[in-house]
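Re-running Glucose 1-dehydrogenase to confirm reproducibility after the cluster update. Everything else is unchanged from the original entry.
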Amino acid sequence: MFDRVRNVDGGRAAVYAEGGTGWSGVRGKRVLVTGGTRGLGEQIVRLLSAEGARVATCARTARDLEELTASLDTETFTRPLDVTSPGSLEDFVVATAKRFGGLDGVVACAGGSRGGGIEQAAPDDWAATWEVNVGHAARLVRAAVPHLRAAGGGSVVVISSISGWKPGPPAQYGVAKSAQIHLAASLARELGPDNIRVNAVSPGSMLIPGRRWDRMRREDPEAFAHFVAAELPGGGPVAPQEVARVVAFLLSDWSSGISGAHLPVDRAQNAPSPDGY
Ligand SMILES: NC(=O)c1ccc[n+]([C@@H]2O[C@H](COP(=O)([O-])OP(=O)(O)OC[C@H]3O[C@@H](n4cnc5c(N)ncnc54)[C@H](OP(=O)(O)O)[C@@H]3O)[C@@H](O)[C@H]2O)c1
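Result of re-run:
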């Protein structure tokens, strides 16, 4: 059953499978999603759960994980951890495969940026931004491969960004997101013989309640309207639910022919921010 909810921009309707759609694409799939308590990761976890997948997720804040599991009808395996902390993510992958009796897919969704522009960002900020985006994704795949191979194959989705292919500051973020696209394409070739597909998804500026674009919309509606008019030919930012559906498709066997691909989900957005290219 489709539950049509209004996107937070009040305009277009984003189809979101609140109660499941009856689609069998990910039913029974065993999937680990990093960074599943907020934003895009939360929507991926909710959609996969609603569609009958068995889902594991992690984030640093234990309370958020507890609130997430309490709000879901289905069992979700969670663990508070920092994906950049050596060994923690790898242990969680092993624990998830043990808990679910195997693993069919992983989604590297945790990510973000630290530091400002080129004169403000310290070398540590570059290293931290690299690690939370690229380093964690590579370690996630490395830990998951034996389990995906044992399952006869699987699907990996790396969440990149419009900033990974349409340049805009801060550079340390765009560079890391760009590397994630290359990582997915490269691993797709390396892991293809094991029937493991690897793809990158690049969301545009997502309208997430309380986050940057939502705040800008409320606090500086004129600047937001200018941003939309200049950079968003589709009339507004994408909702995280719309991106989550593409991720679910890539995890499903319906996308069996897709590997090494880079899928933008940005409704033809131009520049990644009001700062332009
Ligand atoms: N927001 C956008 O408009 C946008 C656009 C394009 C691409 N993206 C990409 O989409 C992904 C999700 O972005 P978002 O904005 O939806 O994220 P978000 O709202 O900032 O949420 C990030 C999630 O990851 C977790 N997380 C962050 N750092 C972590 C760490 N070191 N270890 C473990 N968990 C961590 C957070 O929980 P804790 O804080 O509790 O750890 C939270 O669950 C990111 O890769 C981002 O680069 C976002």
